[in-house]
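We modelled the chain as a single entity of 356 amino acids. Its sequence is:
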Amino acid sequence: FIICFDRPGWYRSRLFMNLAIFATLLVSIVSMGDVVDVLFKLIGSGARFSVLVENLAVNTLVHLFLLLVICMLCHGELVKRKPPSSQLTSFYLLVSVGGALGGVVVSILCPLIFPDYWELNIGIFIVFLLAAGMVIRDVLGRPSLVQVCITVTLGMVLGLVVNAQWAIIDQQDSIVSIRNFYGVLAVREKDADNPELHNRWLVNGETLHGLQQMAPDRRREPTTYYGRQSGVGIAIERYRRGRPLRIGAIGLGVGTIACYGQEGDEIDFFEINPDVIRLARSHFSFLADCPVRPTIIQGDARLSLEKMKQSREYDIMVLDAFSSDAIPVHLLTAEAVELYGRHLKPGGVIAIHVSN
């Protein structure tokens, strides 16, 4: 926005419309790394393109390049249509309204209608159509052979872009996928036809939120971050001493901690995302199989604990409300830890998941 509006000379329409086509093609090829590997193999090359594009730096640079080109194209075309000074107030007002509408679409509308981040794939497709339309308009009036060659080339690229973006949207590797304000949750499973190997897990984006072995003799076995040799597992076993425990868990996941529940225990889960609660109850059995009925408190854990007038006197508090790098800092401040301390018994344990 600053570059295009401050110095319109930086924008060249013909350059950026061609760069937009190249960038959408590049991103589409990156998403089809396995297909490119097959093509390399057919021509006798042992190069592994998929390994290259799985590199975080490469993937990030490709998408940032696409973002830069799109922003230059859209803002450059906007500047070219800037009205005379007498109408600039209305012009900038409408630009601001457009930005606000974009925010509403992405943060409110898309989570309601899409189960995943499909607006990225749809946006890439729309940008390609916009740039291709500009290219076709630019070649009108040139020799017919040039028009035919460019149109056929654009048609081939269109097929590749559509195929790549649709392949991403049409991925059917989840039992169920739900999107809301907090992100995308998906339940996936493996070896559903083999009861002995059948596993089911919950992911938020690409962050694992818990896994359950579905075999009847193993479905109450704690897994992943809460296995019996984990910090949580060791703390619970060490502090049990043959007596009931009171456990507080900030972050439900699939309810794996309920595996440690025994008669007489009290287990409180604090979970802010209602869809996590719904999926933990409908697709996993940790909560239902627990000998005691865990209490699930929906809402922000810190606010919920602050509202409690009396100390819960937990033996153990487990703090695991983290997804990828989205760390809720307000749960880790000195004041927050002091609040947890007020809800602990003397000598109790706060177990914090620190892997991210």
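As a brief sanity check on the tokenised model: The two ends are 35 Å apart (CA to CA). The mean pLDDT is 90.
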